[in-house]
Specification:
Layout (H helix, E strand, L loop, with lengths): L1 H40 L17 E5 L5 E5 L36 H4 L43 E3 L7 H5 L7 E3 L2 E3 L11 H9 L11 E5 L5 H6 L5 E6 L7 H7 L4 E3 L14 E7 L11 H9 E10 L5 H4 L7 H17 L3 E6 L2 E5 L59 H4 L8 H21 L10 E4 L6 H5 L6 E7 L7 H6 L4 E4 L12 E7 L1 H5 L5 H11 E12 H11 L4 E6 L9 E8 L13
Parallel strand pairs: 6-7, 6-9, 7-8, 9-10, 13-14, 13-16, 14-15, 16-17
Antiparallel strand pairs: 1-2, 3-5, 4-5, 10-12, 11-12, 17-19, 18-19
């Protein structure tokens, strides 16, 4: 009996093991089955013949490598992820603003500006509305608004209905800034000091300093007009930050951006320009009307701050070549000579070397370091990069220390395009606390996957659909570097109050950008960007200010049918979507590029096409 019991016991043990194994295999098979079903449901299936416009409906769209759109199932988290944010009371549908606001620039409003001092052009600096003055409505496009021309055709043409202003075509007719041809504007490339066109003017500069060997990549054009100088530098792989005030030359910066050329509303007045120290390889002024010699050379000292060691400053127009032009400028010889002597004196105080003065051009070069410069006039401020609402100082911004007179202060940069992915000196030297070389390399690798994912969920970046792109929280500039091979440019924005300042790193990569507090409006006209990227931005700002106004600002600067990519937590994206649904946007949430298990998700939104109504004339 003992043997029989022992054998029966062994039989039951084997049976129990077999059942456990069957149960484990069954559960595993079900897990695999459900995983495959889930993956199959989120895999693009149907295709449309040609990509025309981004559409977002119940089955959202993604695009393949050919530009065709594919079906992608939406992720719906609304009922499970709610979060309380600093936002206005819920508005189901935001109304359109009056057509009088069609070209509204909140922080450069002419009426508000008149309340401020005209000394040092303070009335044309940024003066933003209070929260009580901020608009809770959508800025309308002109009644006959059209999709802008694609680059590179946009460099030479823009639709009249998009910017219905003929003033510059009349005021600057002789100088060939802009011409009206039927239903469009044409930009011949002319300028006040380059009647033969910007291309020939740049060729003249190229005879004096090398422009095409990759050493000069970033430039700043002060008082840019319609940015023809920056437009034609692009063909030489030089990326220019052009800026001009909103003044009597109506819509000049708006024209620049409509052309697909980087530009901002800005002015050298009483405040630092919103760029870091040692940012630009080249600075340019062509009859920009800035009194460089005034205020102890304050404005030229600001150019020195943002100019990279070894960088060049180019000046054409008054007072250069005054012996030839003094009558046309309606000024005396003595006055013009005195002005040039004063500029030369400031340049010497800055330790600049005058490279040449040839016909209408004068070029100076900033030294590669400050060895041998007068130390008494150096600024005492700790951080030369601080530039958001920081007053100008009548002193020379010091550059990093060097160990020898032939060393480039702050580190030597590689030529373009190698410098886009080379480790920036600010990181290799540990100038940005908390960020090092390893993080930079890792970020570059991550952007390969991100761009591949974006090319699936929106129109491919190489398709020509997008030209002007803004990265609202640019970090290390990885997005801009990754898309540099496409026919686009990126305005990299670093939030002004962020813990780490990486805008200097971005410029060292050969990219451009600016500081900005997103609780305020950006210095641009409405409808000037095709694609906006906002990664982690609302995590930064959810407790700083009302996110509704940030979203309304995004709507203001986004072109009709433009796209937005948000990256953030599900809770924040659900809240953002609930607001943008009332802004005539269509949107959907999709998974992170690494898959559904990543807690960060992506909200893809498209601003629908709509315009304001034409103002009806009252019957007499």
């Amino acid at each position: 009996m003992a043997r029989e019991y022992s054998g029966l016991q062994m039989h039951h043990q084997l049976e129990a093991k077999r059942k456990r194994l069957t149960w484990i295999l069954g559960v595993s098979a079900l897990c695999i089955l459900f995983y495959v079903l889930g993956a199959w449901q989120t895999t693009p299936s149907s295709q449309y013949d040609v990509y025309t416009r981004v559409g977002c409906d119940n089955n959202s769209a993604t695009s393949d490598s050919n530009g065709s759109i594919q079906s992608l199932t939406n992720l719906d988290f609304a009922s499970h992820h709610q979060v309380a944010l600093d936002s206005s009371k819920t508005i189901s549908q935001f109304p359109p603003c009056d057509m009088a606001y069609s070209e509204y620039t909140p922080c450069q409003d002419k009426v508000r500006g008149r309340k401020f001092d005209r000394d040092m052009m303070k009335y044309r600096e940024r003066h933003c509305p209070t929260k009580q003055e901020m608009l809770l409505c959508l800025i309308p496009a002109p009644p006959k608004y059209k999709t802008p021309f694609k680059w590179p055709q946009s460099r030479d043409y823009a639709w009249y209905d998009n910017i219905p202003h003929k003033e510059l075509s009349i005021e600057k007719a002789v100088q060939n800034w802009i011409q009206v041809e039927g239903d469009r504007f044409r930009f011949p490339g002319g300028g006040t000091m380059f009647p033969r066109g910007a291309d020939a003017y740049i060729d003249d500069i190229g005879e004096l300093i090398p422009l095409t060997d990759g050493n000069i990549r970033t430039a700043v054009d002060t008082g840019c007009g319609v940015a023809s100088f920056g437009a034609y530098l692009l063909k030489r792989n030089i990326l220019t930050m052009s800026f001009a005030p909103r003044d009597t030359h109506e819509a000049q910066v708006q024209f620049a951006l409509e052309r697909g050329v980087p530009a901002m509303i800005g002015i050298i007045g009483s405040m630092r320009l919103p760029y870091p120290a040692r940012a630009f390889d080249l600075a340019h002024c062509s009859r920009c009307l800035i009194p460089w010699q005034n205020n102890e050379g304050l404005y030229l000292m600001e150019v020195d701050r943002i100019l990279r060691p070894g960088g060049h400053w180019i000046l054409s127009g008054p007072p250069i070549n005054w012996k030839k032009y003094w009558r046309g400028w309606e000024r005396t010889k003595e006055d013009l000579k005195q002005e040039q002597d004063a500029i030369e004196n400031v340049a010497r105080r800055l330790c600049w070397k005058k490279v040449t003065e040839n016909n209408d051009l004068a070029i100076w070069q900033k030294p590669i370091n400050h060895v041998g410069c007068v130390k008494e006039v150096m600024c005492k401020s700790e951080d030369p990069d601080t530039a958001w609402y920081r007053s100008l100082e009548a002193c020379i911004t010091p550059v990093p220390q060097v160990v020898s007179s032939d060393e480039v202060a702050g580190g030597e940069l590689l030529k373009w395009p190698e410098r886009a992915f080379a480790v920036p000196p600010r990181l290799s030297r540990g100038s940005v606390p908390g960020l090092g070389v390893d993080r930079f390399i890792e970020d570059n690798e991550q952007w390969k996957d991100k761009i591949a994912h974006y090319n699936r969920i929106i129109a491919p970046l190489r398709s020509g659909r997008y030209r002007n792109i803004m990265d609202m929280n640019a970090y290390l500039g990885g997005f801009a570097a990754a898309v540099a091979k496409y026919p686009v440019w990126v305005m990299n924005v670093i939030p002004a109050h962020i813990d780490y300042d990486t805008l200097g790193v971005i410029y060292e990569r050969g990219l451009i950008g600016t500081y900005q507090d997103w609780c305020e409006a950006f210095s641009t006209y409405p409808r000037t960007y095709d694609l906006i990227h906002a990664s982690g931005l609302f995590t930064l700002y959810q407790h700083r200010c009302d996110i509704t106004y940030i979203l309304l600002e995004m709507d203001r600067i986004l072109r009709p049918e433009g796209s937005v990519i948000f990256r953030d937590t599900v809770e924040l994206l659900v809240k953002i979507k609930s607001i943008t649904d009332g802004m005539r946007w269509k949107s959907h949430i999709v998974d992170h590029e690494s898959g559904p298990f990543n807690p960060e998700k992506i909200l893809v939104a498209v601003k629908t096409y709509w315009t304001g109504e034409a103002t009806k004339k009252k019957p007499k």
